[in-house]
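Study this fold:
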Amino acid sequence: MKKATLFLVIAFVFASISSVNAQKNKFEKSVEKDGVTFLYKWKPSELFKKDSPLALVIKIENKNEYDIKANFEVIYYWKLEPKATSNEQEAIVKSKQIFTKNVKKKGFDTYEFTKEEIKDDEFYFDIVEIKIEKIVKEKK
């Protein structure tokens, strides 16, 4: 009986910690176009190093019945002024699937943002120049 109770307590504590972490790392919706939803979150750029610079992670969800190719750019703004623009990003996403893309170090050589800037209310970004292309599968 004591082992069962101890197991339940440990399982409850682990579930609580996992739930808190899941809430903290939740993706937020950015934009939707042609049945494709773009979500984002910020996370440390280096695994297990919470003090590393933050990296933008974009999740692309294809709700269509067909595969797509998504092209887009990210523009970062600080105090209403554009400060950096990514290179054009490309992702192939299968029908009813989700693709996650880390935009870390892709075209931001001229400007680097601090964690404080990213967390500031005057910092924001836009996903722009979105092009969604249906991938037509060749029949054999």
Summary: The chain has two helices and eight strands. The domain at 27-134 is CATH 2.60.40 (Immunoglobulin-like). The chain has a mean pLDDT of 81. Helices lie at 2-24, 115-119.
